[in-house]
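Hey team,

Filing this mostly as a record. A colleague (T.K.) asked me to run one chain through the structure pipeline before their review meeting, and I want the input and output archived in the tracker in case anyone asks later how it was produced. No errors, nothing strange. Just documentation.

Input sequence:
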Amino acid sequence: MATTTGPYQIHTEAHGSHWVAWVSRGADAKPDRSVVLIGKTREEVEARAQAWAEQSSS
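Output structure:
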């Protein structure tokens, strides 16, 4: 799943018992700066990715 926030898209995916998220720019689906975030729930990892995107765009 992908969510857009400013110039970034947040992608999330379930991996076993945890969730991963990464932030990409534009049409590129690869993680920006090779950053992948891990969390126990989708909500947790989306919040962490959102915070990372906001910090990176300032």
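Quick notes for T.K.: The chain has a mean pLDDT of 86. Helices lie at 42-57.
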